[in-house]
Every structure is written in C-alpha cells, then in structure tokens.
Specification:
This protein has 132 residues and is an alpha+beta fold. It has four helices and six strands; from the N terminus they run ααββαββββα. A six-stranded mixed β-sheet has the order 2-1-6-5-4-3.
Length: 132
C-alpha cells in the first residue's frame, strides 16, 4: 500500500520526536512488531536495540529531520542529522554531527517494516575520536 506524502511527513516528524524523547520504545512504536534496521549493510537488528545503543552513547542526542523523499514507487527516504556528545559509558566525550538517511519499506499498517540505514562510518569514527 502506498501512503500519501502528508501521512509520511507527519509520520517522519513523529519519528524524529521519538528519537529526541530518549525513549527507545517510542522509536520502536514506528516499526512493525518484527521491524528491523540494517545499518551500513550490517545485519538486520530490532530498532529498539539500535535506538537504545545510540541513546546510551549520546545522552544529549538530538535528531534533526532534514528531508523526506517519497518516490513514485512508494519507497521513502528519511534524511536526518544526529547531533550529540559521546558521553555515555566508555564514550570519548567528543561532539558529533553526522548526517545520514534511512530507506524505509512501509507496511500496509503504516509502520516501518524494514529500514536500511546509511551514514559515513569513517567520518563518524573520526568525529568520535577528534570531535566535530
């Protein structure tokens, strides 16, 4: 099922707010019960685990919604910027600002069935070590 642009924009805004809530369960509410995210070609992982990991690593994390691209075939790209200080357990204390996007497959229920997350891993690791 293809969802209209207004639904997808509203969904994306709520998804962004969920990430900023610091509550992994709120992020997971945007995914189907068995929904997963695979980051940079990695193994599909439950979104709650991924959200928990980032929220622990960046306690002051803010996620900014940069764009939502809805293609004619119904596929969706959610573009974001993560800003935060890596001050969680074992963190470097450095500030990070990294952009990326998720390629979503939206199910008939209007939730993310699967996501392919993408960001520049090399730049992310550099910022962890040296800061922005």
């Amino acid at each position: 099922m293809t969802h209209d642009r207004e639904y997808l924009l509203d969904f994306s805004r709520r998804y962004t707010q969920a990430w900023c809530s610091k509550e992994p369960a709120r992020v997971a509410e945007h995914y189907a019960p068995d929904g997963t995210v695979a980051i940079n070609g990695g193994a599909p992982t439950p979104i709650a685990l991924v959200a928990e990991s980032f929220m622990a690593a960046f306690p002051d994390m803010e996620l900014l919604m940069d764009d939502v691209v809805v293609r004619g075939d119904g596929s969706v790209e959610y573009h974001w910027t993560l800003v935060g200080t890596n001050s969680g357990p074992g963190g470097t204390g450095n500030r990070v600002r990294i952009g990326g996007f998720e390629e979503w497959t939206i199910g008939d229920d209007g939730l993310v069935a699967s996501s392919l997350g993408n960001y520049d891993q090399t730049e992310y690791e550099r910022q962890l070590a040296e800061g922005v």
